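Dear colleague,

Thank you for sharing your sequence with our group. We've completed the structure prediction you requested, and as agreed, I am returning the results in plain text so they can be pasted directly into your records. Please verify that the sequence below matches your submission; if there's any discrepancy, let me know and we will rerun it promptly.
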Amino acid sequence: MFMVDIIRTRERSHSVQYLRCCTRLLKTLTKPVSSCRVQTKKVYKQPRMPSPQRKRAKSEPADAKKLGDKTSKALKVPEGKMLTKRKSKEPAPRRKSSAKASATEEECMGPQKNVYTYWLMKSEPESRLENGVDMKFGIEDLKAQPHQTACWDGVRNYQARNFMKDMKIGQEVFFYHSNCKEPGIAGIMKIVKEAYVDHTQFDKKDAHYDPTSQQENPRWFMVDVQFVRMTKRFIPLTELKRYYQEQTATGGPLKNMALFTRSRLSVQPLTKEEYEFILSLEDVKT
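Please find the predicted structure tokens below.
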């Protein structure tokens, strides 16, 4: 009997606890909606986000660390090679940049102009009419001029004109007979007056009249030459051509002579070597 009472007492206590739990559950479910929302806000309220600057400041070390890790993984080379690579990225030394600047200046200035001190000038020793004017003027005609001096007019080639502009007083010139039976070098003359305006370009009666040239802006120029002497012997073109062909193959003073490389020019420059070699041919017996 005593045991039965104990069992009943336990059953009652369990039922009481069960009822209490049910009562609490019902109270929770029957609470107003507003109170639940307030409670929800309190529970799920998001924390305040840090400012962007603070976030970047905090993330920078991590990013840098990641980049460092990637770099170290990608470039697994000895320390010496790393230093060499960094050195190649450095700017070029100043001496190299100055050399480059000087090269640029030379390009702007263009190629340097050759300075000539000897010349060869062609003229026709035989009569030839052009527009009713006789074009004959050989070395004998120069000797017959007053003071054996004459103006070298009638040049109508721009390159030949520019060569005459470069001529200086006292420079020696070979008098070359052209457009004749036997062309060649007949004598020596010298420059006695530097380039000035060629008056024949404005003379309508002259064979070298140029209607496009203007008085205020003349196009053509001339120099004055004076007879010096005849060469000891006449040096024909055929002889000069033979030396030119030999020296073109083997080397020599005449290998680049303008008489053959720019044969149409009536005024041609000569190097000192060319002039002295041709002058030495005077004493060669043929």
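Summary note from our side: The beta strands are 118-123, 129-130, 133-134, 149-152, 172-177, 184-197, 221-236, 267-270.

Kind regards,
the structure core
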